[in-house]
């Protein structure tokens, strides 16, 4: 067996150096001793220290080139190791660390691929906190308003009976549709219009106390009335007497004229928006209900949701003024006295042709003179209608004067 070649370099005489640059060789540590022993036996690959310059030495041991003494790179590496200079060494664990870092980088790259490929990473499902609107149930509370019970639900939203704990009084809370609350632009428009309507003060207009905007939902706070809608009364009784109908219509007309003087048009006048309480008629939702319908129409890109049977022809084409409310009042008067609407289908063609039965035929108690007054109010041409609600009601009262005398 041929002994392994001795790769330990022989001492080379060197000139003495000055004290300032003298380099002392530290005593070999156990780590260095083990490394040198493996180098002496030719086990370069098993050595804890790997020198890039020892590639030539490994090749020489394999018989592929001349002995490492003839390799300047190998000789320089051994000289540095002997003198304690590890500047050219790479500990084996450095390579292992590099492999770990490469693996970690690859894992991060794989996780990032879905973010740049357009695919959504899986989400962790968490339970959302309870929204404030969820407290709009009997026994709940919104700010200083307690929820007593639900009164009804319509196109604008849900109506609740509430109690104002600050002022110690009953109120009506109307929660508006979520479509409006969720749209910032429509939300601002609605709040602006609600403030305008809230400025109306009249005995026959239901007062808006405040607007609650908690960031999630919108609630209108109205005065609370113990009464019934005009629509419910007509449904129950069939029709009203001429005296009752004229009294209710007169109060509605005063509310309309007050709003028109302030530049506010109701746009959705109908018996369902009139509350009768202790002989007093009060109109609600001036301009607000129509704003809700227009908002829903804009968001859904559908036709406006309203009550076409009460709408003036020009209103269906997007035009509206005070005379449009006079038209709606004429429809309400007809319904109170006849027990049904003049245009049951609410078709535009019927309104344009004034295809409705004279009121005197629907109710024998109505004089023929009232037919002419109703025909003016229901004219498809706004210019031919009475200029105000009061003008219409004054003409109607004269038509009934002999009968009611």
How would you describe what is shown here?
The chain has a six-stranded antiparallel beta sheet with strand order 3-4-5-6-8-7. Strands 9-10-11 form a three-stranded antiparallel beta sheet. Strands 1-2 form a two-stranded antiparallel ribbon. The protein is α+β, with helices and mostly antiparallel strands and 405 residues long. It is built from 16 helices and eleven strands. The chain has helices at residues 30-40, 55-61, 72-82, 92-117, 178-181, 184-198, 230-237, 242-261, 288-300, 313-316, 322-338, 348-353, 359-362, 368-377, 389-399, 401-404, and strands at 49-50, 90-91, 141-142, 145-153, 157-164, 169-176, 208-213, 218-223, 228-229, 274-277, 280-283. A hairpin with a 2-residue loop joins strand 3 and strand 4 (145-153). The radius of gyration is 47 Å and the shape is elongated. The longest helix is centred in the N-terminal third of the chain and has 26 residues, at 92-117. Helix 6 (184-198) runs antiparallel to helix 9, helix 8 packs antiparallel against helix 11 (322-338) and helix 14 (368-377) packs antiparallel against helix 15 (389-399). Helix content is 42%, strand content 13%. The termini are far apart. The model is unreliable at 44-73, 89-93, 124-133 and 299-305 (pLDDT under 50).
